[in-house]
Amino acid sequence: MKIDKNKIIDLNKDIETKHLIQLDSIANQLQHKDIDGQDIIKKLKIFQVAIPSWALGAGGTRFGRFSFGGEPASLEQKIDDIGIINTLTNTAGAVSLHIPWDIPKDYNGIKEKAASYNIVFDAVNSNTFQDQPDANESYKFGSLSNINKAGREQAIQHNIEVINIGKKLGSKSITVWLADGANFPGQNNFQKALKNTQDSLQQIYQSLPNDWKMFIEYKPYEPNFYSTVIQDWGTALMLAESCGDRAYTLVDLGHHLPNTNIEQIVATLLYKGKLGGFHFNDSKYGDDDLTVGSIKPYTLFLIFNELVYGMENNPQNPDLAWMIDASHNAKDPLEDLIQSLEAILIAYAQALLVDQNKLREAQEAQDIVTCQEILQDAYRTDVRPLVRESRLQAYAAIDPLATYRALNVRKNLIKERGKKSTATGL
Ligand code: AOS
Ligand code: ZN
Ligand code: ZN
Ligand code: ZN
To answer: Cys staple from 322: which of 49, 51, 117, 371, with CB 3.0 to 4.6 Å?
Structure first.
C-alpha cells in the first residue's frame, strides 16, 4: 500500500485552522524571547532518523510475540512500510538493515524502491549473536572475542561481507554490536576476550572503505548476564581509538545501567569527536526498547541539549547517524515508530529553544537557579505546533498518527499481506 499525498493534504485541511492558531501563539511567545520559530522549523524539516528494518514486525520479549497482522514478509515490504512512515512524517528518510536478516535479492529493485520514497541506506548492522543454519562455527561462546580462531575468523568475514552488501546499497557505515561475554565468573579471561575483540575489530577496520565509518555499540549486560566484552562507552571508545579515525562509539539509550548520566556520556564523546551514531529508545529497567520518550522525556531533552550543543560547538565530531532501535509487542509497530519520531522531534525542538548564551552567562555567574530555569523553561514549552508546521511545510501529515488511522493503513496492510507475523529483534 502506498499513501496518496493528496489524501494527506485533504486531511491536513481539516485541522489546519486549529494548527495555525496554535502556531501563531507559540511564534509570539518565542518572539518575546528573541527566538526565530521559522529557524527551528527549518532544522526540524531536514532532520532524518533511520528506521531499523527489525522494528517493522511485532517485536517483543523472549516470552512471546503477538502479531498485529499485515507485517512485512520481505525486505521490499519493509521498505514499503518505511515509505508509509516517511510519507506521513517526513522524518524517516533512511533505513538501517540487519544482515543476514535482510540480504537484498534484487539490489537495483530495492534501491529504486527506497529512492521512490526518498529513503537512503544508513548504517548496515552485522549479526554475530545468532548462529546461521549453514555456519561452520558457533557463536555460543562468542564471536569477535571467541577463544577459537576459527570462530573469530568467521565473525570477521561476516562483518566484511556486511560491508560489501552495504557498499552495493550506498550505505556509508557499519554498526557492530556484540553479544559476546560470559554468564559465569571464570568462564572468560577478560583480558584475552578484550584483546581478541580488539584484534578482530582492527581486521574489520582494514576492510572499511575510506568514506565509511564503523560504529561500535556497547551494552552492559544481556544476553550474557555476568559480563559483556564491550560493556560501556569507555570500552567502546578505547576500541574505536585502537582502530582508527573512522571508528566511533554508538550510544544506544537502553544500554546503560539504571540512573547512568547518558547526557554526560554524550557530551564527553562529542568533545572527543568520537560519537558516531545513536540508537533511540526508552526504558525503565534495562534494554527495554520502549517507545522513545515514553518513560523519561526530560532525560531525552537533556540528551538533546548536549547533542545540539555538540552539533554547534564540536566540529571535531562528524554528523551523527540517528537511528531508532525500539520495538514492542503490544503496539502496532508503525504507530510505535510514529510516536518515537514525534518524541525525537519534540526533544530536538525543545533543545533548540535553550538560550545557549544566557545559559553560559548563568553558568559563569554560578547562578544555578537560573541555569535550571533556562533548561526547564525550554522543556516546558509546548513545541508541538513547530513540529507540526515542519511537517505541513513538507507536505507530510500535521498529525501523522491520526492520519495513519484515518487512512486505515493497518487494515489495508492486513488485507494485502494477511495476518502473518514476522518478528525479529533483540
Ligand atoms: C542489541 O541490544 C542492540 O541494541 C543492537 O543494536 C541490535 O543489533 C539490535 O537491537 C537488533 O537486535
Ligand atoms: Zn541498539
Ligand atoms: Zn539494545
Ligand atoms: Zn534491544
So the answer is: 49
Residues in the chain: 426
**Contact in structure between 251 and 264 (CB atoms under 8 Å):** no
Ligand 1: nearest atom to the Cα of 287: 2
The atom number, within ligand 1, closest to the CA of 217 reads 6
Domains and CATH numbers, the chain: 46-354 (3.20.20.150)
CA of 325 to the centre of ligand 2 (A): 5
Give the closest residue to 336 by CA, choosing from 281, 277, 285, 394: 281
Give the C-alpha separation, 3 to 271, whole Å: 42
Whose cell is 486531511? That residue is 11
Looking at ligand 1, which residue's alpha carbon is closest to its atom 2?
426
Cell numbers at residue 231, please?
Answer: 560493556
Distance 269 CA to ligand 1 centre (A): 20
Which ligand lies nearest to the CA atom of residue 176 in the structure?
1
Q: What are phi and psi of 380, to 5 degrees?
A: -90, 5
Per-residue pLDDT of the chain (426 residues; tens, 9 = 90+): 899 999 999 999 999 999 999 999 999 999 999 999 999 999 999 999 999 999 998 766 667 777 789 999 999 999 999 999 999 999 999 999 999 999 999 999 999 999 999 999 999 999 999 999 999 999 999 999 999 999 999 999 999 999 999 999 999 999 999 999 999 999 999 999 999 999 999 999 999 999 999 999 999 999 999 999 999 999 999 999 999 999 999 999 999 999 999 999 999 999 999 999 999 999 999 999 999 999 999 999 999 999 999 999 999 999 999 999 998 778 999 999 999 999 999 999 999 999 999 999 999 999 999 999 999 999 999 999 999 999 999 999 999 999 999 999 999 999 999 986 555 544
Say how many CA atoms lie within 13 Å of 337 toward its Cβ: 33
- CB environment 235-262: b (16+ within 10 A), e (fewer): bbbebbeebeebbbbbbbbbbbeeeeeb
Whole-complex ipTM? 0.96
